[in-house]
């Protein structure tokens, strides 16, 4: 237990590289905070008018959580999935020992697109790849101290006594919170978990801290609730969970336990190994792995 914190994490603009010609805002991993619970990655791509073409690429050791805000995304993967994803729906891909997938915006031209892409680190026991789409998720009403009641969509894990139907491997929460204008409400939290909140849209004060758009406020643990309020209305995303208790070596699209795990996965992808399968509906197109850095990859540690 580290106690309550109030640490702001600013997003940084990151190019996705290759021929995709896209930039994203990345908040996790942060140099001082590699994980929040098992959450190990958070990107926001958009809002923008763009034609997204993310060709087949590999993952190990994590779950990808795709949460669209605007637009539609086509997901195809090596376990035979081919689905379109819309606002309010969840795509959850479990990489396990190895999987590959692609993501395209729906349509040929540039379209409005905005989404959150998050990763969840898997325990080493979770080795089987898989995919699930959830088109209906539970919604919780949060009684307001002032103004109208707020609502929370439970995207992943457990929040306010309600469970998402999505498969999880560690104690975790991911929830979208919608605050009407003029609302003040307490969000219930699990005392033993660490939490953070991101302001996606609108204006908000969280634990008396005035939020900037796309900023993340890390709350630490030891809280049973946090007060949030908005003057004009807000969309927030809450993430948290039990601290991830295994070593985590992250590089490119891989989450492993050691340098050797990452090297083996990269070599397998570059060799066209069956480890990652073949993405349905694609030919030979794929994203090559970048060169490994000339140093030994080490587990990420927090510096809080």
Automatic annotation (TrEMBL):
Residues 27-120 form the Pirin N-terminal domain. It comes from the Bacteria. This is Pirin family protein. SUPFAM superfamilies: RmlC-like cupins. CDD domains: cupin_pirin_C. Belongs to the pirin family. It holds the Pfam family Pirin. Residues 175-272 form the Pirin C-terminal domain. The lineage of its organism: Bacteria, Bacillati, Actinomycetota, Actinomycetes, Micrococcales.
């Amino acid at each position: 237990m580290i106690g309550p914190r109030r640490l702001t994490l600013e997003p940084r603009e990151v190019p996705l590289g290759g021929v995709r010609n896209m930039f994203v805002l990345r908040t996790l991993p942060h140099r001082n905070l590699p994980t929040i619970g098992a959450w190990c990655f958070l990107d926001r791509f958009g809002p923008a008018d763009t034609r997204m073409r993310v060709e087949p690429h590999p993952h190990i050791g994590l779950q990808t959580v795709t949460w669209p805000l605007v637009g539609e995304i086509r997901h195809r993967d090596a376990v035979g999935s081919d689905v379109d994803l819309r606002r309010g729906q969840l795509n959850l891909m479990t990489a396990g020992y190895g999987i590959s997938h692609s993501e395209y915006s729906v349509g040929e031209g540039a379209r409005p697109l905005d989404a959150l892409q998050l990763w969840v680190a898997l325990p080493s026991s979770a080795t089987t790849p898989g995919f699930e789409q959830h088109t209906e998720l539970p919604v919780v009403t949060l009684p307001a101290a002032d103004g109208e009641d707020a609502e929370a969509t439970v995207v992943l894990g457990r929040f306010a006594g309600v469970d998402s139907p999505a498969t999880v491997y560690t104690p975790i929460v991911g929830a979208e919170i919608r605050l009407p204008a003029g609302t003040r409400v307490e969000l219930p939290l699990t005392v033993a978990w660490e939490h953070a909140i991101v302001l996606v849209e609108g204006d908000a004060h969280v634990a008396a801290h005035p939020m900037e758009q796309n900023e993340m406020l890390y709350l630490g643990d030891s809280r049973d609730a946090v007060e949030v309020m908005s003057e004009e209305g807000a969309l927030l995303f809450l993430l948290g969970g039990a601290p991830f208790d295994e070593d985590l070596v992250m590089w490119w699209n891989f989450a492993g336990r050691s340098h050797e795990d990452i090297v083996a996965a990269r070599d397998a992808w570059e060799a066209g190994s069956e480890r990652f399968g073949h993405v349905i509906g694609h030919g030979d197109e794929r994203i090559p792995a970048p060169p490994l850095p000339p140093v030994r990859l080490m587990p990420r540690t927090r510096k809080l």
